[in-house]
Design goal:
3 strands, 3-stranded mixed β-sheet, alpha+beta
């Protein structure tokens, strides 16, 4: 939801996302992430890369960045 609000504030939306990069601290959570991903994004899904990292700022378990078209 945070990403959705950022995109909307910038004059874009989740439907205009072209690419997503996801950083997970535990790749075993990929299935859960994938389920949530399909709830927020519609077909055709944006290109994505999912990367396991050892640690993220503020000890969060996931970080997402996105490239989207702006109106």
């Amino acid at each position: 939801n945070h990403l959705k609000h950022i995109l909307e504030a910038a004059g874009s939306s989740l439907s205009k996302v072209l690419k997503v990069t996801v950083y997970l601290t535990d790749i075993s959570h990929f299935t859960t992430f994938n389920t949530l991903y399909s709830e927020f994004f519609q077909k055709p899904y944006p290109a994505r890369a999912v990367i396991e990292v050892s640690r993220l700022p503020k000890d969060v378990s996931v970080e997402i960045d996105a490239v989207a078209l702006a109106a």
